[in-house]
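Reopening this one. Same input as before:
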Amino acid sequence: MISGMEAETLVETGVKLFVLDTNVILHDSRCLKQFKEHDLAIPITVLEELDQFKKGNGEIHHHAREFLRALDELTGDILCDSGANLGEGLGNIRVILGSEPDPRVENLLLSDCADHRILSVALRLKQAEPHRQVVLVTKDTNLRLKAKSFSLPAQDYTTDKAESVERLYSGKRTLIGLPSELIDRIYDDSDCVQMTDVPMLIEPKPNENFVLKNGSKSAMATCRGTNRFLTRVTRPTAFGITARNAEQAFALTALLDDSIQLVTLTGKAGSGKTLLALAAGLECRKNYRQILLSRPTVPLSNKDLGFLPGDISAKLDPYMQPLFDNLSVIRQEQGTADRNDKLQEMLDNQKLEITPLAYIRGRSLQRVFFIIDEAQNLTPHEVKTIITRAGEGTKIILTGDIRQIDHPYLDSRSNGLTYLINRMVGQSIYAHIALEKSERSLLAEIASDLL
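Same output, byte for byte:
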């Protein structure tokens, strides 16, 4: 219980009480340090749920173990009613034992499940501590709606969320009304055009791309790394695949540039993200020991396929089939038996390998061209785990559509791909391109826009 004097202090300082749901902890085990001076409450139901996740090799199992260890270190031998301090400048944390369920939850909600017990604890805390705001923090949209229906403030965990998808860095800009002489200079000798010669070019980022226009004249250029000159971009070809539009030209240029060690590609279905990345890897195969392809095993609509027969390769085939589809497209574009034989030889010798992401932790990837498809279904922590595997000479490419997410607790602002783009902008070894046009087919383009 909070004493009267403590209550007055809490009112004066505006300290809130945040009640954490299990999915917040499984999303980010370091969440305890993200609430500044405010206090935290962990319902005992959350610890019970975490107990089910402490064994396993997945990211959620890692987060469960890390959180429980951190909580154990903070609390010492005994966790008193007032809780344990989280550190200098931070609030306290306490575990709330089970109590009588809130009668409104018991009467109005059909089942007695973990979510409803957590909601009931939050409502009881709101009644017991009317002197301050009690907020339920959960990544479960439906639980937030239920809490708000009971007049309980509920929020998403937004520490690693982007402010706005519309304002997300696109990696390209179009500059209109430039002097004709400037565009001519780009074609004559791109290295002589300084960024200061383009007055409309405000705060260019390393490896940002530009479409320069003057009436019917236009040119494509990029700002390579920390170089203060504009470099002309052509329409490159990689392993038989040629860029079909400006965005694809920018993307393929970055993919073929060995000085850029991290590339992200976003875009709707059929925009060529995976195909370009794979073609670039095959074109640069002599520079790398191995080409690795992977994607998260999150099925459509989050409906699991269940147990599948065969070894690990056979079990992964349904999830990895889109990568095989892109390999088939490249085979068809070759037109020569020699290159198709080379592709098959790379597959046989594991120079080109399709692998699950589940076993990436602990690996060190040296001189590997690593493509991660459907990266929008990764959490920020999973993206960090993948990128920190990169050794000397390794290049990592993440592709995905941030508006097409199958993960139940991620959205277009909180997924790992969006988080990565937001954090890496401005780094000289990083490039990003947002592909806008679908090149798969007219039908795919229409469906992507209208459906």
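So the earlier flakiness isn't reproducible anymore. For the record, Residues 299-305 have pLDDT under 50 and may be disordered.
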